[in-house]
Amino acid sequence: MDTQRDGTKSLYESIGGAETVRRLVEAFYPNVQADPDIGPLFPEDITPVMEKQYLFLTQFFGGPPLYSEQYGHPMMRARHLPFPITPERADAWLRCMKRALEEIGLSPEWRDIVLERLKAPAYHFVNTP
Ligand code: HEM
């Protein structure tokens, strides 16, 4: 279903689809909440954020466009503007993600590919020196 038009597998499919994205999100947010640089930016009730991230990462990795179906155009940089995101906070976000990828036991090869894909948006969302 999520094979791309050229017949190759999407990143979503390659890393294990819905189950992997779910596990990744569930591993990621406890790391975020425990992080002194970015934890305080998030609400105490993290469940709605986790759900949105599940929908977004599904689509970002090339799976079904679940986020857009519910929330329209992602406009992710704009949605992050209310929060002061410094380069250090982008580093912290990526560190939490790297640890989550390790925790769910994704192979080092796929881990690097996923992190590399997320680096560009993370630094693109920086809006504060
Ligand atoms: C660069 C460092 C980042 C920081 C500090 C950060 C922080 C935040 C914060 C504070 C929220 C709002 C939580 C709330 O609802 O109150 C949020 C929402 C969100 N973030 Fe990030 N974020 C970062 C990078 C990213 C990246 C790289 C992605 C995905 C590629 C991402 C995806 C999302 C999504 C999908 C939401 C929910 C948007 C919505 O409300 O619909 N974030 N983020």
UniProtKB/TrEMBL annotation:
Family (UniProt): Belongs to the truncated hemoglobin family. Group II subfamily.
The keyword Cell division is annotated on this UniProt entry: no
Protein name: Globin
Cofactor(s) for this UniProt protein: heme
Keywords noted in UniProt: Heme, Iron, Metal-binding, Transport
PROSITE patterns: GLOBIN_FAM_2
InterPro entries hit by this protein: GlbO/GLB3-like, Globin-like_sf, Globin/Proto, Globin_bac-like_CS, Hemoglobin_trunc
Organism: Paenibacillus flagellatus
GO MF entry, a single one: oxygen carrier activity
